[in-house]
Amino acid sequence: MNTRIAALWRCTRIDAGLTLTALLAALAGCASAPPRQPASPVSPDAAAAAPAASAAAVAQAPSASPAQVMSAEELQARCLAWAQAFRPEARAAGISEAVLDAAFGPLQCLPKVLTLDRSQPEFTRPIWAYLDSAVSASRVKQGLTRLAEPAVHAALEQASASHGIPVHLLAAFWGLESDFGRDQGSVPVVDALVTLAVDGRREAMARRELLAALRILQAGDADRARLLGSWAGAMGQTQFMPSSFLSDAQDADGDGRRDIWASLPDVMASTANYLRRRGWRAEEPWGQEVLLPPGFDPLRADATLKQTSAAWAAEGLRPADPQAERLAPMGDAWVLLPAGSRGPAFLVAHNWQVIRRYNASDSYALAIGLLSDRLAGRNEGVRASWPRELQPLSRTQLQAMQRALAEQGFAPGTADGVFGPATRAALRAWQRREGLPADGFPSQALLALLLPMASAPETSY
To answer: CA-to-CA distance for 137 and 410, rounded, in angstroms?
Structure first.
């Protein structure tokens, strides 16, 4: 371990009640104090804090786009001009003049879409807080109630039989995406996509999805009034983007329209088709919670380190569920530590990646898996404890961590305050260099260690 960090680590008794400011002050005092032996080993994630940042760590606010600084009237005029300029491209793609008139005649630019698209919350909910809501007892109860309805049961069974997707997995997507159909979004999709295109930051995506939305109108699957969804353009009871609708939506009730807003057979068949086309393996589960053997190296919890569940069992991994005799059969499985080495562990494989094709978030994928298990009556939730005493880093603090890692020669990517794969890999590499458990989980304690080291020369003690 680096002599400087070793001395700081020995000197400071990390307390989960300390703020980051207090941690930094304690570490600053340690830098000039002689080392002392700790009474017992201390985990690097043992600190949690109310977020606080030094002046040096304050990030610049994102600059406003041209569309954001306009008045509502100017924004509306720009949307109308953009739509007019887009018409030749749409005509060339085969969209009729009648459809273009129906789509763009009542066009209204939506300033709230820009506000939502640009909003960057300073704090991201930790995974356990997200799961408390996503897989709550009330949601499970509501899901079981809906599953008992004959029409819902029939639609799910039909989709499952046709596409090989488990009934309860489809129900989990339905529950998370629209609260079992109750909250599909009420934003006009054409208006939202034109607004995003005018903003310019995501114009290529917005143009592509707008053209797909126009094709939906031309095919007669929905009219403009039905084409409602989220501010980002996701539609229906399982929130398909227009391009996904074109490639995956199905008319399962035989009425000649693919209706993901009101037809349960269409909703479930379309969702099942999406998952099947992304390679869902019917013979494998999404994953399962596991118990790790003593001394398990967190570095082995990596999506690039894949082997069969039988091979993991040979290393000492076993199911967290005491009723399960052995690990579920999975090929190319890896260990996931979504809250670092102090939280629950999961073994996931191919189907986990299929779920992430729907939403590229580990929190989301875990919520889908856990909710599907609860609806199927397979378990009562996560058995291991989450490290709830840990407070999340703010966006500003994550930017400070990214800058500190970059200054020490690691590659965390852009200092944008988003904890993505590059930042996680850089943090794990730094933890490994310093002899700390390399779980890649950002904590107040690790940030407190990183900040004093940034710009500081190596010191011998």
So the answer is: 42
